[in-house]
Design a protein that fits this description.
- The protein is globular and about 85 Å long.
- The strands form seven sheets. The chain has a seven-stranded mixed β-sheet, covered by helices on one side. Strands 2-1-5-3-4 form a five-stranded mixed β-sheet, sandwiched between helices.
- A hairpin with an 8-residue loop joins strand 11 and strand 12.
- The chain has four domains: about 80 residues, Roll (Ubiquitin-like (UB roll)); about 150 residues, Alpha-Beta Plaits (2-Layer Sandwich), CATH 3.30.70; about 180 residues, Rossmann fold; about 100 residues, 3-Layer(aba) Sandwich (Dimethylsulfoxide Reductase, domain 2), CATH 3.40.228.
- The protein contains 17 helices and 27 strands.
- Helix 8 runs parallel beside helix 16.
- The structure holds iron/sulfur cluster (SF4) (3 copies) and FE2/S2 (inorganic) cluster.
- One iron/sulfur cluster binds next to helix 6 and helix 11.
Length: about 600
């Protein structure tokens, strides 16, 4: 990579050609204040907070958009620069309502911090007293136009990162306002509630309803983890205070999603109103009663060990860690020789003979075939990637049904029977990518294979950790009628067991490892309380086969335990001598996933 040499504050600096002064300064550890700039967004040079002095230039220049050149000399903290920045801040504070002490973002606001940094301690200009509306029509967050500094970060985040293009600007000058679609209330707009705009807003204009006034950043902890709501495996940060989850944010450093997450990760789990199972339960005299872990595990161990392996059944959710799935396979498949094992979520068939492509390939594509998958509903961040590629000129062909939520963005919508038309178009493309899911038919798989090396194939697995379930052989068909003792690892999944329970023989013994109360556990003989996504560590394998570490952010509810630990304790209760160390189990699971 060609490097450019320049001086910033008399310090010699080298940065890749094409960098801006701001990027070069960041590489050299020189802090230049910004407001409209955000590292994940295209710079627009709107706020003038980053003005710097460039030798030879008559006026001060915005560092976020000004490109570096060989021999350039830049001053970032000269008195001229400081004066200009202070002036920018004085104007911003005189517009709208920036009475910081009443704002949810006080202490965490980028505008307020800059106010302190440049000594803004009074209003120099008459304050602007016009009242702007507050739009609280969205379920999860509020737009307070009074706090908005019109930096347009939200507009760019919605357009560039989510490719949803909900946000825009109306009016001019001091009356400028962010609006949704054709100026409809936010709650009635095309917004998909991913919250990316909320995450990039530098002030208290976009405010999370649930965590508002619950703690400033210095009072919180940010724990990096991986989303376990679908198979994309987006990196996220769980923000906690005093042992409670306040909110979830996208992790800008995450390799899969680079900061963008969806509603299902950011908001839905925090609004889950299902009742937790907090203690082990054992059926006694026809009723489930609370017992200690020891008694509950003893009962499970006795029944499982006392059942003929051909009459043992296992059903698992794919929303479990690699470690739990590994132990489930080891205990039931290897040690107890059970073969009647199935999963709740299904597996997408393998289309390509070669190793599958990665989600990043979607961005490079010029023709995208979405076949038998509905990422808008099932893997939302993947749908953002597809829509970003469309914005860059890629052509989308949806081979599914009219109900597919990507259908309105497609240049061609086809039925599965007409897949050959899509394949013909892909054959003529430079970089075709096939994004497919569990809905792809056998016939379509056969037809798609004709594309061979020409296309990249990106599977979208239907369950969170389907990849690991399949890799550990936990998906070899399940016959409820053959199960006299059934172990269900349902975890956090909403599954009532109907259909399966009806087909099971009378008197069959049912063990449920679950996080939430449900109609399923009402039929159980033993219920083992399981920790949820924020309460357990472990690893997850995403739809690309990428193994990622999930970290524990808060203590489990009541006596709940992590999914893997329950299985390890059960195995030991059966005298199997399994490891109880997460690190050891993780290493063994990772070995099997290679
Ligand atoms: S929540 Fe997401 S979709 Fe909605 S306006 Fe913000 S960035 Fe756009
Ligand atoms: S809402 Fe926030 S991000 Fe959007 S323009 Fe206003 S201050 Fe900037
Ligand atoms: S796309 Fe899936 S993994 Fe990514 S944030 Fe949404 S639910 Fe989580
Ligand atoms: S950060 Fe450069 S102009 Fe706003």
């Amino acid at each position: 990579m060609a490097m450019v040499n320049l001086k910033i504050n008399d310090q010699k600096v080298s940065a890749p050609a094409g960098s801006t002064i701001l990027e070069a300064a960041r590489l050299a550890g020189v802090d230049i204040p910004t407001l409209c700039d955000h590292p994940a967004l295209t710079p627009i040079g709107a706020c003038r907070m980053c003005l710097v002095e460039v030798k030879g230039q008559r006026a001060l220049q915005p560092a976020c958009t000004f490109p570096i050149a060989e021999g350039m000399e830049v001053q970032t903290e000269s008195s001229k620069v400081k004066e200009a920045r202070k002036f920018v801040l004085e104007l911003l504070f005189s517009e709208r309502n920036h009475y910081c002490m009443y704002c949810e973002m006080t202490g965490d606001c980028e505008l307020q911090s800059l106010g302190y940094r440049y000594g803004i301690d009074h209003w120099v200009y008459p304050t602007y007293t016009k009242r702007f509306p507050v739009d609280a029509t969205r379920q999860y967050f509020i737009m307070d136009h009074n706090r908005c500094i019109v930096c347009r970060r939200c507009i760019r985040a919605c357009g560039e990162l989510v490719a949803n293009h909900t946000l825009g600007m109306r009016q001019r000058g001091a009356d400028s306002m962010i609006h949704a679609d054709m100026n409809v209330p936010f709650g009635e707009s095309s917004c998909v509630s991913c919250g990316t705009c909320l995450q990039v807003c530098p002030t208290g204009a976009l405010v999370d309803k649930r965590s508002a006034f619950m703690g400033r950043d210095v009072e919180t902890e940010h724990i990096k983890s991986v989303c376990s709501q679908c198979s994309i495996g987006c990196g996220m940060e769980i923000v906690t205070r005093a042992g409670n989850v306040l909110r979830v944010e996208g992790d800008w450093d995450a390799p899969v999603n680079a900061g963008v997450i969806c509603q299902v990760a950011r908001f839905d789990p925090l609004y889950d109103e299902r009742q937790r199972v907090a203690k082990p339960l054992l059926r006694k005299n026809g009723k489930l009663a609370e017992v200690g872990w020891d008694k509950a595990l003893q009962s499970v161990a006795e029944h499982m060990a006392g059942t003929d392996s051909r009459k043992l059944g296992v059903l698992t959710t794919s929303n479990a860690t690699n470690e739990a799935l590994y132990l489930l396979a080891k205990l039931f498949g290897k040690e107890l020789q059970a073969t009647n094992i199935g999963m709740l979520n299904g597996v997408a068939p393998k289309v390509s003979g070669n190793s599958e492509a990665s989600l990043a390939d979607i961005a490079q594509s010029d023709v995208i075939l979405v076949v038998g998958a509905d990422p808008v509903n099932d893997q939302p961040v993947a749908s953002f990637f597809v829509k970003r590629a469309i914005d860059k000129g890629a052509r989308l062909i949806v081979v599914d049904g009219e109900d597919n939520e990507l259908a309105p963005f497609a240049s061609l919508n086809l039925k599965m029977a007409d897949i050959n038309k899509a394949i013909e178009i892909a054959q003529r493309a430079d970089y075709p990518v096939v994004v497919y899911g569990i809905g792809v038919t056998k016939k379509a798989v056969k037809a798609l294979r004709e594309l061979g090396q020409k296309a990249k194939f990106v599977p979208l697995e239907p369950g969170v950790n389907t990849h690991a379930v399949a890799a550990f052989g936990l998906d070899n068909g399940f016959d409820p009628a053959a199960a006299q003792a059934l172990y269900v690892l349902v975890g956090e999944q909403d599954w009532d067991g109907k259909g399966v329970l009806e087909k099971m023989g009378k008197g069959a013994f049912l063990v449920v490892q679950a996080s939430y109360e449900s109609p399923l556990i009402e039929h159980a003989d033993v219920v083992l309380p399981m920790a949820i996504w924020s309460e357990r560590a472990g690893s997850l394998t995403n739809t690309e086969g990428r193994v990622q570490k999930a970290n524990k952010a808060v203590e489990p509810e009541g006596e709940a335990k992590p999914d893997w630990e329950i299985l390890s304790l059960l195995a030991n209760k059966m005298g199997k001598k399994f490891s109880t160390s997460l690190d050891e189990i993780s290493a063994l699971a990772a070995e099997r996933l290679k």
